[in-house]
Amino acid sequence: MLFRLDPALQQLLARAAELAPTVDATVWLVGGVVRDLLLGLPIGRDIDLAVEGDVNQLAPLVAEAWGGHITARHPPFGTATIVVDQWLIDLAQTRTERYPRPAMLPEVQPAPLALDLYRRDYSINAMAIQLAARDGQLLPMPLFDPLGGVADLAARRLRLLHDQSLRDDPTRLLRGARLASRLDLTPDQATAAQIAAALAAGYLALLTPERIQTELCLTLAEPDPAAVVALSDQWGMTEQLIPGLRWTPALAERLARYRNDEYGIAALAPAEMVMAGLLLYDLSDDELAMFLQRYHLPTTIRHLINDLVSLRRLTAALTAAASPSELDKLLQPYSVPAIAVLHFASNAPIQPATSRYLREWRPLRPPLNGDDLRALGVTPGPRLGQLLHELRAATLDGLITDRAAAEQWVRQQLANS
Ligand code: ATP
Do residues 242 and 333 make contact, with C-beta atoms less than 8 angstroms apart? Predict the structure, then answer.
């Protein structure tokens, strides 16, 4: 399986495997990469290595040999992150975890790999392959699967590893919904019962808003966030996380419109902002206010939500706008991502106008700027601002097409005043 990895990554892993014994360590490829290799899926940039041995000794050696650099290090926990080429490689000392209280961060202790796998979330994420190499080449090694991950993958089963798992760490509920939706898995009976019990016990409420938010952001980055919402609804989880959000045919349609991107708008705004806006679009003003209050969102997202609250009231006015300048007047106060959300959230009548607005009209600059107007004799002050504004409107509506026409227009305005 390892030979499906990018050859450059194989070389890095081989180098790590050769260095490990020099500090009495053993290195294993673990987690999502092993799962995705088994499924034949593409491998992303995050690579997780479990180290039986001293990461604090091994990480600097490996980083140097790779020509990478260590970007994060937590010596007491024995973890280090190394950035090398396009990869972000996490080294973590194998450990057990003890959760003194539900949803709190665990106390950790070094432990053999088998116990490290057991403290993980789902069986399909609890498999490992030891790294061994000769002459700079990885050697084929068997899969270490003591918890039955392969069988669960084959049966498309989502299975928790022990019955306190969701109490220990309720973020696993959100991780489970993402995984199950992405990989089309169904919880086995015991896991389904644990999910229901954890939600009924209100464990999600024990998490800090920041931890939930991190998981929600990961959901936005999923290939099909609407499918995660649908599954999360089925579990009865969405309502506990974002009251008012639910999967509807309209939501699916909106996200499909975004995916199809008929008008070439998607590239104009960050995907995660548009996705967040589209998911939240149908929440009431009160529900959005509660959402803003509950989570400490980045300013960009807060602004987006505030923009959407007013923008979505404008759909009728936008449909009725008779000219580009009228549309500009309505949309100018709002950010591009918010208008992009409106574009994808709306159906046919508005889209041609919002797309031309975003691609052509919004970026349009009139042929003259403030300095040019001053050179033509306009005194600085509100009048200059007003003229610039009118000039932009006339340019948008095609009444002024070049600099000469713009200058003539300004002279005429001055003569008239
Ligand atoms: P993805 O494809 O979603 O990135 P991943 O499994 O690689 O999947 P990571 O968040 O990078 O996801 O986690 C790496 C591994 O660490 C997981 O596969 C799992 O074994 C373990 N893990 C991560 N988060 C938890 C958690 N909350 N509880 C238990 N184990 C976890």
Answer: no
CA distance 309 to 154: 45
**CA 189 – CA 345 distance, rounded (Å):** 38
280 C-alpha to ligand 1 centroid (Å): 27
165: left (phi over 0), alpha (psi -120 to 50) or beta: alpha
Q: Whose CA is nearest to atom 12 of ligand 1?
A: 32
Q: Which residues line ligand 1 (CB under 6 A)?
A: 31-32, 46, 48, 120-121, 125-126, 169, 171-172, 175
What are 168-220's pLDDT values in tens digits? 999 999 999 999 999 999 999 999 999 999 999 999 999 999 999 999 989 98
- Asked if 232 contacts 177 with a C-beta cutoff of 8 angstroms, the reply is yes
**How many Å apart are CA 170 and CA 57, to the nearest integer?**
33
CA proximity to 362, closest of 346, 384, 339: 339
Instruction: Give this prediction's pTM.
Output: 0.89
CA-to-CA dists, residue 178 to 16, 225, 281, 286, 292, angstroms: 31, 8, 21, 27, 23
